[in-house]
Every structure is written in structure tokens, then in C-alpha cells.
Amino acid sequence: MKVLIFGVNGFIGHHLTNRILNTTDWSVYGMDLGFDRLDKSLDNPRFHFLEGDISINKEWIEYHIKKCDIIMPLVAIATPKQYVEDPIGVFNLDFEMNLNIVKQCVKYHKRIVFPSTSEVYGASAEPEFKEDETFLVLGPIQKERWIYSCCKQLLDRVIYAHGTRGNLDFTLFRPFNWVGPRLDSLNTAKEGSSRVVTQFIAELLMKQPISLVDGGRQKRCFTYVNDGIDALMKILENKDNCCMNEIINIGNPDNEYSIKELASILKKLFMEHPDHKNDQEFSEIIEVSASDYYGKGYQDIYTRKPSIEKARRLLNWEPSTGLEESLKMTLYSFLEENETAHSSK
Ligand code: UGA
Q: With a 6 A CB cut-off, is 218 part of the ligand 1 pocket?
């Protein structure tokens, strides 16, 4: 099988590529702007990489969509700070560029495995979000944070409509706060625009305050990337067409924690780490308002818990990694990366 991954150097892209190359005889064709996370794969004869841009390398894209069996468009801006700072950039990349790929999958009758997002459920008040039942609740237009959710939702609807009319085979998967090694780059975190786990790790390293937005009462269900990749592999295998034209949440409802709890666990793990336990000072944990931290275009989501009944039933999948273990593996990997970056300077 030939799997085509756009954004192959991204968080999900590179973890998935490693898994495919290590555990199957499939080939991966991948494109990305960079390749710093792909060192383990670059020498593999079943990995074919182009350093390129989905808005530029149109011929390569079309040729490879025709050539491959499954298409995974994983290119997207996925950090809330960027949704409020550059909503048009989010629309151009996350919506328009991906729509082009969807259209070509329709044209060449290719199966698409598309990353929807937990964000499509928005501020739904349901205790557990169900793929085929839950209302998708977004805030007003002035709250620009929702543009990402809205772009993804419309793409979900376009893909679904092609699917129900027999023009496209698809599976939509919805990751819920996946965490793990190389989640975001530490450099972007040091500039202050990463997802929460990388952001807190960067603050700990820089001895800067960890900011709890609006007190950190909001909760997320953190999912370890290896658990998520287990589910994705089953989706790619699609045994007996089990996930044909389905939407599937991939999250860990048992790992529901507040951001305040997340901050204190990460700080504790950092303070226990052999290289840091003798540090003279550690980051303090402070509270900031959402408007000071993100600006007026932001609105938060207070609870976001997946129902994974469908993933259990269709994929026979169950996440198994607890939060503390997930954070420890994530933190240790970032510390190692930071150490290597410093020692090679
Ligand atoms: C994320 C992103 O939108 C996407 O990566 C993705 O589609 C989706 O959720 C997902 O991974 O499931 P969110 O969970 O809000 O959205 O993003 P984070 O930046 O990780 O923030 C989590 C929470 O931590 C938010 O409530 C935020 O206000 C808070 N936060 C963030 C802080 O309290 N302090 C910080 O320094 C950063």
C-alpha cells in the first residue's frame, strides 16, 4: 500500500511515518517544508520525501495523488494563538489548500483519511462528544478563535457530502489533545505560540512563569500520541471496511485534567528530573486573563471529553497511557532535544 502524507514532518505525520515504516511493508510518500523530525525515516527505501510546499508544488501533488492509495492531508495551523493572530492564514492553509486536495481525491477516486478535530464540537455543553449526535457550537464571528473549527467543520461536511453521494471513500478522525515527543517546536514555544504542553515545558526550561489562562479551570482529555497512532493504523488498515465513511473520535476520556493540574504535574516532573533537581529556581505558576494572554478574539472551551464508543466498536481500540506517564515521556524527550541543540552550538 502507498500512503501519501502532506505535512509528513508534523507532529502526527512523523510519528505515523515511523510506525508505518517499522511495522508494515507499506510505502510512505511525504511532503513537508522541513525534515528535522524525519531523520529516522529518511534513509528508508520505502520512504519518498519531497521538501516542498502544498501551495506551490502542484504537479508533484497531483501526480502523487494519482499514484498512491490513501491520502492524508495533515498540513494545518493548529495552535489557538495563531487562530486569533492570523485567521486568514488559517483559512488559506487549513481550508483552501486542503480543499484542493479533497477535490483531487474525488477526481482520482482515492481514499482520504482526513484530520478533523476535537475543536469542531466547540463549546458544546454535552458531557461527552459523540461523532454522529453532538451539536457543534461555535461563538460569534468577532471571536476569531473559531475560524479553525469552522474551516475544519466545513471540510468535514464537504468530504461527507462527496462520500454519501458515492464520489469519495473517507474516514474523518478527530484527535483530542494528543501529546507526545516533538508536539510543537520548542522555538515556537519560546516565542509564546504553542499548544499548552509544549508551552509549559518551554517556560520551565526558560524559568519563566507558567501562565494559567483564566485560572486554568478548563479541562482537556490528553491522549498519548502512541495510543493515537495505534488507532490511526487501524483506520489505515480499514479491515473489512470497518471505518469506511465514518467519523471517529480518538481521545482518552480517562485522562481528563484541568490545565491547573497539568501545570502542577509538569512542574513536579521537571523538578524531579536528574538534570534539574538541583536548579536554583523554578518557574512559578501564575494566573492571567484570556484577553491579556490571547487578545480579544479568543474564547475558551471549558470541557471537551470524547465518547470513544465508536472507536472501541469499529476499531477494537482502547487508549492505555495515563497522563503522568504521557507527560513524562513528552517532557524527557523535549529536555533531551534541548540538550542536544545546546551541545551542538
Ligand atoms: C487545541 C488546538 O486547537 C488544536 O491543536 C487541536 O485541534 C485541538 O485543540 C486538539 O489538540 O484536540 P486547545 O486544547 O484549546 O486547542 O489548545 P491548547 O493551546 O493546547 O490549550 C489548552 C488550554 O490551555 C486552553 O484552555 C488554553 O487557554 C490553556 N493555556 C494555554 C494556558 O492556560 N496557558 C498557556 O500558556 C497556554
A: yes
